[in-house]
Fold this protein.
Amino acid sequence: MESTTNKQSLMKGAMILSIGVLVSRIIGMVYRIPIRNILTDEGNSIYGVAYGIYVVILTLTAMAIPGALSKLIAERRAAGAYKEAQRVYHLAMIYALGVACVMAIVLWCSADFISNTFYPTQDVALPIKALAPTVIIATSLGVLRGYFQGMGDMVPTASSQVIEQIINVIFSVVLAYSFLNTTQSLVWGATGSALGTGMGAIAGLIVLLTLYFLKRPRIKKELAHSTEYEYQSTGTILKQILNMMIPVIISASVFSIMTSIDQSMISKVLPRNIDILREQGLLNLVPVMDAANLKTDTVVNHLSSYLSFQYMTFMNIPVSLILQLGLATVPAIAAAMAAGLYKDIRKKTKLIFKVGLLIAAPSAVAFLIFADPILTLVVGDAKGAEVLSAGAIGILGMALAQLSAGVLQGMSKQSIPTINAVIACAIKVAMNLIALSIPALNIYGFIHSTTLCYVIYAILNIRYLCKHLHIKFNWKKLLLKPMICAGVMGIISYAIYALLIFIGVSVKLSILVVIPIAAIIYFLVGLATHTISRSDLLSFPGGKKVVAFLERA
């Protein structure tokens, strides 16, 4: 019973985070549609490049904070040392805001240099400057989210993410349209969209601060009953925070930097390859409609937009859900490590891997088979569908990479995924260079090198877990069976989709009908093949009701 309760507690937190991320990602994806229509693919590419630079800076200030801080706070709260947990939170906020202010100033001052040096065909300086102040706000968000997650409360993170995206949508669309209409400049339109991102972050921060003050009475009660904890100096605590954060920062920044390197290579090197394909009469290999009649820079901007929107935005929906599973694991693994419960750690690791792959497998098959109709439904056209389909299988590698990194971070082994990330990304650089030497690969070379990068990263992380945690993964159950179920789902659902199209149903209505049918098919096939077991269902909040219903049926 205790094991089931622990599983439910872990999965409840993961589900709350995942639901928040799912809703915010869907909102974020939907708002890119009017932004794309307002700015066109060229303006969207400008925003995508600027946002990529912003994310690189954010990895240095905010992205590593929630996981690191939640672990340190969870450890102290597990010992009843609430005062010490609160002290860690305050020190983390002071440190993080100091770094964020410095990085925001650096980003603002270097915007013109970055634009002229790395993206000579795109004027991205102004959107970068518009995003610079948001670094400070987003960093504050990261600290507060880490604080609440360390308390085992995932609701503030989820709710703030949703509100942040809603306000982001409203202001990004309004400001992009207003700026573009006033100036007739795509750069200013992209700048308006960037300012909307900052407005969303402010709204998210207001939500978290409100929830924090509402919880103050409870926090004060806990502080009054706090137990003694080994006193640690400010320097010692900051060192612990940095020891947790720096490897994660390096790991995350490596991947963010790689994304920016991809965009830079696309901007600087890909035009030459497009010209070669034009000379050879092979522009039909480039997934841009009517590429032969477009200027080379225009074709490249389309490809850059496909990479940042059709590929990254859609892939990030399932990947972000899985990432939240990893984040939810960190404090749970940390608490188990502090108590020396290695058997519990192995169980939690296997559970989180299984759930992650149960999400990843159908997502990969769906994007592989239905990229065209999904984009048609969401965006209104199928531009860039080939790019999304080509990268679909990479979801599996990304899932394993994110989950294994989360477990290692919870075990205080964050240096391991950092080293592995550097190795994997070094291989990606080599793959990029090879891909660029083969013009026929064009944008697909970047997609396939990214997939390979995450697969290598995942293998290295999992190899360490197997060796040092003495854990044995049953890959038949974890990976093969979900992929078989997803494959069956894909075959049946595509047959239904093809039939609907054959009898004259529109593409949008057909895919709307097929998506829930596909989910039901996957669930039923999973039950029939025991890929989804009774114990799996019981580990989810509300799982008892589902099991009871199935047993009655």
In short: The chain has a mean pLDDT of 82.
